Amino acid sequence: MAEVRARAPGKIILSGEHAVVHGSTAVAAAIDLYTHVSFRLDSPLPPENGDGSVELELKDMALVFSWSSSRLKEVLGDGFADSSTPVSCSPGRIKSIAALVEEQNIPEAKFWLSSGVSCFLYLYTSIHGYKRGKVVVTSDLPLGSGLGSSASFCVSVAGALLALSDAISVDTSQTEWFKFSKNELELVNRWAFEGEKIIHGKPSGIDNTVSTFGGMIQFRSGELTHIKSSAPLRMLITNTKVGRNTKALVAGVSERASRHPDAMASVFTAVDFISKELSAIIQSPAQDDISITAREEKIEELMEMNQGLLQCMGVSHAAIEMVLRTMLKYKLASKLTGAGGGGCVLTLLPTWLLLSSIHAASSA
Ligand SMILES: Nc1ncnc2c1ncn2[C@@H]1O[C@H](COP(=O)(O)OP(=O)(O)OP(=O)(O)O)[C@@H](O)[C@H]1O
Ligand SMILES: C[C@@](O)(CCO)CC(=O)[O-]
Ligand SMILES: [Mg+2]
């Protein structure tokens, strides 16, 4: 028996969601909220004791799913697992996995979990075949709210599974956090991307990439550049608590793009320029109060322009608009983050606001 724990962060998208699926540049940053996974890989049972099972416990929801190794083999066939070569889930395999998930009777009110459970089964059986083991998941993130819960689920599950695979061997006797090398992170990221495909349909890869590598990134067509903000950027995250589904929203934008190809191509191009400009401003040095204010005003303007274009793509929502209007009363600029259609809104908290609250506190 061997056991590991892994965690991966959620994210915010500062600019470029949706357009990034169509080849535009986007800017994203990891946040300090994580999905946590523990994985225990059990030793094989002696033949007289049966064949064991693969178990998934979603602790926050008090749900446990379990498949016997023989049932998995019966439905998925004899295919062998190769942890070092990420492959896409074929349509036939997706169907078989969906049938295995359906057998688990997920409560009707939580049917949206099916894609996450399917993604788990795909990653587990691709990396460890039908070996018996148990994965336990908890998350700090609100699910389906634009903070990359699906990607951090994929990255943390892939990371934990790979840590006990032939591809990456972690010394399980140590209790310190083990840091994957760049090549190992790349492998985790590629598997997580395959998982995201099951949840998102057509992901750009930005969410799993920022969750895997952390920090702040500029991302375009699968290529990432690490960037560093020259001064602190404070963002307030407001959750509208309006549920939505990234897969449907991404598909909706693609449908709009096929109805209005030229207009939407121009929208995506505009977003590309906005993200590039935002990335440059974030990295540009700002030494004094005047340049800090000028920098923040430019960021606010770009966030508002990006929000306008997201509205144009059809992914805003009345609840998002209400947050935008409320923040505007306080002269604060906002945009949705992630897939939109509900979920979370980002508001830049500029330095003047911080200074005026410090002033108010000290004169009180
Ligand atoms: N901790 C988790 N346990 C099980 N499934 C999860 C977990 N986190 C995410 N998922 C799966 O991911 C789905 C939510 O993913 P979705 O992409 O719609 O939203 P998000 O990732 O939170 O937001 P965005 O993609 O906009 O950043 C859930 O419905 C579930 O299937
Ligand atoms: C909406 C989207 O652009 C970001 C979701 O966080 C989808 C993706 O890039 O995969
Ligand atoms: Mg997602």
From TrEMBL:
Entry GO terms, CC: cytoplasm
EC number: 2.7.1.36
Taxonomy, superkingdom: Eukaryota
UniProt entry keywords in alphabetical sequence: ATP-binding, Cytoplasm, Kinase, Lipid biosynthesis, Lipid metabolism, Magnesium, Metal-binding, Nucleotide-binding, Steroid biosynthesis, Steroid metabolism, Sterol biosynthesis, Sterol metabolism, Transferase
Listed GO biological process terms: isopentenyl diphosphate biosynthetic process, mevalonate pathway; sterol biosynthetic process
Family designation: Belongs to the GHMP kinase family. Mevalonate kinase subfamily.
Protein's recorded name: Mevalonate kinase
